[in-house]
Structure formats: C-alpha cells, structure tokens
C-alpha cells in the first residue's frame, strides 16, 4: 500500500520530512500547506515534486488521498492542527514541541487517544546512532543501574543578533525547554526512565536579549527509579552547537560516544571511543528523519506503536511544563502518574 502524505509547514524541518517520505517507496507526497506560498513553491522546485499546494489544512484533511499528515508549523498552532488531523482519521507526525501549555496537552491527549491513529513525535534523536548505542548500553547491563545522568542542549538560536522573530516570542514557542531543550529532557526520559520530581532555575537575562522568555535554563530531575539527572537548555550562550548525554551507572559510564565499562570489557583502563554518528549538529539535515519515517510506516502497517508515539512524547512535554512551572513557582514540582503507568524500579545490584 502507498500512503499519501500531506505536509503542514514549509521550513527546514518540512523539507527533511519531504525527503524522508520521498525516499520510502511506501509513501507519496500529495501536497503541502503553509502560510508562505512562496516557500512552498521553492520546496516544490527543490524536490522536483508535482504535488499539490493546499490553500488550507481543511482542504488537505478533506483529500481522501491523504492518510498521513506531518505537522511542521510553528508551535503555537500545533494543538489545533493536531486535533483536526486526528479527528479526520489521519496518521500523525507531530514536530516538537507538541504543545506549549498544559491545557493544549490535555486536549491533544484526549483527541489522540480517541482517534486510534498511528503517531510519531519529532524527537528524532531517538533514531540517532549514538542514542541507539546508549539505549542498548542501558538495557543490556553494560552500564548497570543508572544513578546519575546529564543532557545538555546548547545552541545559540539568535546568530549575530538577527533572530527568526517567531523563535524568540513566548506566545509562539513557550520557553527555552519547549522550543528546543525538550530534546535533552526526552533523551533522559528515554534512557533513564520516568521522572518523579523536577526543579528548574534560570540565570539573569542579558539586558540586550531579544527573547521574550529566559533563553537559558538548568533543571534537576529525580527519576522514579531513584536516579538523579541534570538538564540544561542554553539558547543564548557563546558556544557552538553541543548536545551532551552523560550516563553514570554502577557498572560503567558513557560520556556521549565514550564508554568505560571494565566489567564488560576486559582490561579496560580508559574510555573507549565508539565510532558512531553523534548528534553534533543543529542542522535538521543532520538528523535521522529517514529512520524515523521508516519505523513510522512500519508501525502503521503492523498496527504497533513507534518508539516516540504521541503519548510517549506527551510525557516529555509534561516534564518540560513542570520544569517551567518550577521556575515560576520557585520550588520543586512533583509529577504524579496513575498507578497502572508506574514503571517497575530497577533492581538494586
């Protein structure tokens, strides 16, 4: 079966989804909708496609040849577009952040749960080879029981003082974590486990900053299995792009793609560098969208959930929103989950 795909948005991420779907023979781009017709026209020239240009999301959803919709628009319209998409029975690709406030999170969760469609969230780094290597190391005993973890997202998003203006607006992207640092939160959730409690802090803002929210944030996370974590999201720092993932277990340590596990590797005296692709670029073209979409199409056909389903991504959003609330409130925030969703604690070794 060939799946017809509609793309919402015409930016750099939409371009990568067009490439990813076009690379899989099971998918066909039917058309694109965006508030920027000129950018759509440019995308069509670049891709060599003959797909349609939809005047509205409604027109795309009314097209029976479209059974997948990828939402790559600005974050402030994600919730309304997502709800319309799943109510129309279309399978869903939703870019991060999924939502920008708690009310939107609740409404979208309800709509997706009632729809029965297959979903995937744009936490694309879960398909990065280094992330997959780290996931394996956390499940096969290489690192043992994790007790401390760090993840950092450092990406100066206002180069030379000339920002994409929507990226600095609180009403459009919400916060530092929601707009970008959620990738770091998701990394720790995926690799360590569910989060029980958070507390976040933001340093004093640069008085010349063009952001409508504090662009830099640090948070401490307490996990349900007893581990502790730290996340930082720095959008306004003098640094090239950096995405750190550090995991400390009682059998070994992983610092990005450097692993020290003397119990697994005989006579190891120093970190071993694992030759793999690391998340060392903020350019969407560097991210593994093709692998994400390949799994998404597999899951549509098998009726199974992707590794980054909407509900899973919603839990990452829950943590991000709790951290932002902690910053506002000035104290730690507890995340309570229904008993049937509580993960089993890791065994003590």
List keywords for this structure.
349 residues; alpha/beta; Rossmann fold; Dihydrodipicolinate Reductase, domain 2; six-stranded parallel β-sheet; 10 helices; disordered C terminus
Structural class: alpha/beta
Q: Quickly count the helices.
A: 10
Reported by name, the CATH topology of the largest domain is Dihydrodipicolinate Reductase, domain 2
Question: H/E order of the elements?
Answer: EHEHEHEHEHEHEHHEEEEEEEHHE
Q: Which residues form runs of ≥5 with pLDDT under 50? A: 339-349
Oligomeric state, counting identical vs distinct chains: single chain
**CATH class categorisation of the largest domain:** Alpha Beta
Main sheet specs:
9 strands, mixed
Would you identify the CATH architecture of the largest domain?
Answer: 2-Layer Sandwich
Task: From the alpha carbons, calculate the radius of gyration and give it in angstroms.
Answer: 20 Å
Terminal CA distance reads 48 Å
Query: How many strand elements?
Result: 15
Count of structural domains: 2
Roughly how much helix do the residues carry, as a percent range?
Answer: 25-40%
- Overall pLDDT metric: 93
């Amino acid at each position: 079966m060939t799946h017809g795909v509609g793309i919402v948005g015409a930016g750099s991420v939409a371009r990568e989804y067009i490439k990813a779907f076009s690379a899989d023979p099971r998918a066909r781009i039917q058309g694109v909708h965006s508030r920027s017709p000129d950018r759509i026209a440019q995308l069509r020239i670049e891709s060599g496609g003959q797909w349609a240009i939809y005047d509205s999301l409604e027109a795309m959803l009314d097209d029976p040849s479209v059974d997948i919709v990828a939402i790559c628009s600005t974050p402030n319209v994600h919730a309304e577009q997502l709800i319309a998409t799943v109510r129309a029975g279309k399978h869903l690709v939703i870019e991060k952040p999924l939502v920008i406030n708690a009310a939107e999170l609740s409404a979208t969760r309800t709509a997706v749960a009632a729809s029965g469609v297959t979903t995937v969230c744009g936490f694309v780094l879960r398909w990065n080879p280094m992330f997959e290597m780290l996931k394996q190391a956390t499940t096969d005993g290489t690192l043992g029981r994790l007790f401390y973890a760090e993840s950092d997202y450092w990406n100066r998003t206002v180069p030379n003082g000339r920002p994409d203006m929507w990226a600095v607006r609180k009403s459009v992207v919400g916060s530092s974590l929601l707009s970008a640092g959620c990738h770091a939160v998701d990394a720790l959730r995926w690799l360590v486990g569910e989060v029980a409690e958070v507390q976040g802090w933001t340093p004093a803002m640069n008085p010349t900053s063009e952001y409508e929210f504090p662009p830099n944030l640090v948070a401490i996370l307490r996990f349900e299995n007893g581990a502790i974590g730290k996340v930082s999201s720095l959008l306004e720092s003098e640094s090239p792009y950096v995405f750190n993932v550090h995991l400390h277990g009682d059998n070994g340590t992983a610092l990005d793609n450097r692993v020290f596990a003397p119990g697994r590797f005989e006579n190891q005296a120093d970190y071993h560098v694992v030759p793999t692709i690391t998340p060392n670029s903020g350019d969407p073209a560097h991210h593994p969208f093709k692998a994400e979409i390949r799994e998404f199409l597999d899951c549509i056909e098998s009726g199974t959930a992707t590794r980054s389903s909407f509900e899973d991504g919603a839990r990452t959003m829950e943590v991000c929103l709790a951290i932002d609330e902690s910053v506002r409130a000035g104290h730690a925030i507890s995340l309570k989950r229904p008993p049937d969703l509580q993960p089993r604690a890791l065994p003590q070794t």
